[in-house]
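Please, structure for the following, as tokens.
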Amino acid sequence: MSEAGQAVILVGGRGTRLGALTDTTPKPLLPVAGRPFLSHMVERLARQGFRDILLLTGYLAVQFDPFRAEWQDRGVRVTCRTEPEPAGTGGALRLALPDLAPGFLLLNGDSIFDIDLTAFTLPMLPIGIDGRLALRAVPTADRYGVVTLDQGRVTGFREKGGVTGPGLINAGIYYLRRDVAAMLPPGFCSLETDLFPRLAGAGRLEGRLQEAYFLDIGIPSDFARAQKDFDRGGLAFLP
């Protein structure tokens, strides 16, 4: 398969909601069906043509070295950019600015949204648009917060806690221009609070509603669910 572009994965967080499971292992490297959760993600990316992978590491960063070497041996270029201290999702991306392609796919390292990733990056972002978010409709949005959408443009965000009932959520997959990383403030910052609302307010953020399997391993019950939804041979989503 031909190259589909660069995929950047946020893997630097502490993963405190999983308790002792992440005391000695970064959340994306926790075993799911016999191998690291991140391995399932990278395999899926490689199958869709993304063979240039940039990991934005932080917590226990050295543990990603064997993972990187394994995938290098399998023909996937994996590099790491490590934050010297916790920088948040936005700070990690800003630090990676020299490594970013002009347009790149960005993914959270603790969730799977089983969409066609190559198709998500098409067409190229038009003039006046700096990013595209993958959105998913859920029956209960209180855990995630809500995204508001109007004719394909993201118009705002409502934070989790105080949100009840169904809604559209940010599914943790983005297609962004490199220039947006330079818009982030130095130091600790968040994509979700310091960048995306700003882009949405300027009318520069697309949202694409997708229907597909979704799993976020950030809490113990969903981490346990992941063990059932994956098999040792790769992605095996249940109906």
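The longest strand covers residues 167-177. The domain at 6-229 is CATH 3.90.550.10 (Spore Coat Polysaccharide Biosynthesis Protein SpsA; Chain A).
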